[in-house]
Amino acid sequence: MTTHQAELTVNTRGKGTFEITRAVDRVVSASGVDTGLAHVFLQHTSCSLVIMENADPSARRDLEAFMDRLVPEDEPYYLHTAEGPDDSPSHIRMSLTRTSETVPVTGGRLALGTWQGIYLWEHREAPHTRRLVVTVQGQGGGTEEDPMPNAE
Q1: In the chain, what are the domains?
Q2: At a CB cut-off of 8 Å and minimum separation 6, what does 137 contact?
Q3: How confident is the model at residue 145 (pLDDT cuts 50, 70, 90)?
Q4: Alpha carbon of residue 60 to chain centroid
C-alpha cells in the first residue's frame, strides 16, 4: 500500500465557496495511487469542506443563502465575538458541515460524480489563507491481483 501526503494552501476572498477539486486531483495524480482513497482535511474552525454541484453556481449560492438564514451574524446572544460579528457564526457553520471529506480514487483520479466538486467553504467575511492536508492511500497502477475476486 502506498501513502502520499501533501499540504494545499487556499487563499479565500472572504465568504463563499472556492473549488479545490483540481488541486486535490493533482495530489492524487502525483501520489501514484491507482485505486484507493483521498482524504482531505481542513486545519481550521471557521471554514469547512463540502462536496457540491459544480455545474451551476446558483446551487452553491442557494446553499450559502440558506446557511446565512440558519446561522445569522451579529446576533446579541453570541458570546464569542472577539474577532467580529462573524466570529461565532463561522464556528457554528463549520460544526454543522465538515472539516474533512474522503473520496474514492479510481484509475488514478478522484471518483467524483459527473456534477460533483470539492469546495472549501469560507465562513468569514475577511480573506484568509487556509491550509488543507491531503492524504492519498491505496495501490499503485500495474497488474496487481484483485484481492476480492468475483464469486462464482
Answers
A1: 2-139 (2.60.120.460)
A2: 1, 2, 3, 4, 33, 36, 37, 39
A3: very low
A4: 14
